[in-house]
Design a protein that fits this description.
The protein has 359 residues and is α+β, with helices and mostly antiparallel strands. It has helices at 3-23, 26-29, 32-71, 75-102, 125-145, 174-178, 266-294, 330-334, 339-357; strands spanning 114-120, 148-156, 162-170, 183-189, 200-210, 225-230, 246-251, 256-260, 308-313, 318-321, 326-329. Belongs to the prokaryotic/mitochondrial release factor family.
Length: 359
């Protein structure tokens, strides 16, 4: 292992042990706020600490085996040490690779819940039907991985599906997985309305926002927003509520408009709409920062077919993620088995980060 990496790991190990010591002092464990803060810091370092501790234990055994081979006269002991040293070298290599991954920069939003928006884009009615199919796919995926979905706002498509649907997903490190869904999704299939059996191409855009809480300093001034109330509507614009409980908030400085209509009361819908607005403003800040740092802007896209991140090819029963050239069965993906694609994207992201930071 390189000296600089070893020194960094030693520093992290010392930090962990220092935090462990502090957590056992009366002034900390009697102070809930301080105890919670330090416990979180310790938990964030735990995987690195335990893996490095194991690395050092194996390293000690490796050095002992090496010493026996170099200085021992007993042939049997030397043979045993030679056998052990090969295994120890392999284990050290594996542990070093694991430590490289653990040392990678962490996306500060990975632990957050998310707000997702799906919109029908190119393809008219078929794009809206595809938006509905994507929503069902995410519902099934959420069931598989124990995430919870809650609809915030929706506009039905005239032929089925949604021209737009907004929903939240809550669970363990949701953003770390769902962030890979941002972009243009393309479908190739024969629409139900097609009489000559021709394959059509349509698209839907998926936006994934990290849901922000009080830990993020996003200030929304009352004078900067305009609040409208209306009745929730179902398919074809039909009213599904007898009171004006749905809420639309317009943020004047940014021009962002958010709507919530799936809660029971106007107060709840307003709270949900404000939460969505806060997440959108946070996303704008992140995009601005990314532009300044690297010139890159991560958007969902306009919906143009050429911007696709993934293609769902029904005639060939195949889903292809174009970012990594990964293909798998369409049927299993639409039934919610997204982990194969997401895990491949995570592995690709880690490989790129390792290359970038030069570990």
């Amino acid at each position: 292992m390189e000296k600089t990496m070893y020194e960094s790991l030693t520093s992290i190990k010392n930090q962990y042990l220092e935090l462990e010591k502090k957590l056992n002092t009366p002034e900390v464990y009697n102070d809930i706020k301080k105890y919670t803060k330090l416990s979180k810091e310790k938990a964030d370092l735990e995987d690195i600490y335990l893996t490095f501790k194991k690395y050092q234990d194996v390293e000690d055994l490796y050095l002992l085996s090496k010493d026996i081979i170099e200085h021992e006269k007993d042939a049997e002991l030397i043979e045993l040490a030679r056998h052990d040293i090969d295994n120890q070298q392999d284990e050290l290599i594996n542990l070093e690779e694991k430590l490289k991954e653990l040392l990678l920069p962490v996306d500060e939003n990975d632990k957050r819940d998310v707000i997702v928006e799906i919109r029908g884009a190119a393809g008219g009615d078929e794009a809206n039907i595809f938006s509905g199919d994507l929503f069902k796919m995410y519902q099934k995926y959420a069931e598989e991985v124990d995430f919870k979905i809650k609809i915030i706002d929706y506009t039905y498509g005239s032929a089925g599906g949604f021209s737009q649907i907004v929903f939240s997903i809550k669970g363990n490190k949701v953003f770390s997985k769902m962030k890979f869904e941002r972009g243009v999704h393309r479908v190739q299939r024969v629409p139900a309305t097609e009489t000559q059996g021709r394959v059509h191409t349509s698209t839907a855009t998926v936006t994934v926002l990290p849901e922000v809480d009080d830990d993020v300093n996003i200030i929304i001034k009352p004078e900067d927003i305009e609040v409208d109330v209306f009745r929730s509507s179902g398919a074809g614009g039909q009213s599904v509520n007898t009171t004006d409980s749905a809420v639309r908030i317009t943020h004047k400085p940014s021009g962002i408009v958010v709507t919530s209509q799936d809660e029971r009361s106007q107060i709840q819908n307003k709270e949900t709409a404000l939460k969505v607005l806060k997440s959108r403003l946070f996303e704008l800040e992140m995009q601005k920062r990314e532009e300044e740092e690297s010139g890159l802007r991560k958007l969902a896209g306009t919906g143009d077919r050429s911007e696709k991140i993934r293609t769902y090819n029904y005639p060939q029963d195949r889903v292809t993620d174009h970012r990594i050239g990964f293909s798998t069965s369409l049927k299993t993906v639409m039934e919610g088995s997204l982990d194969k694609i997401i895990n491949a994207l995570i592995a690709d992201e880690k490989a790129k980060k390792i290359k970038e930071v030069g570990l």
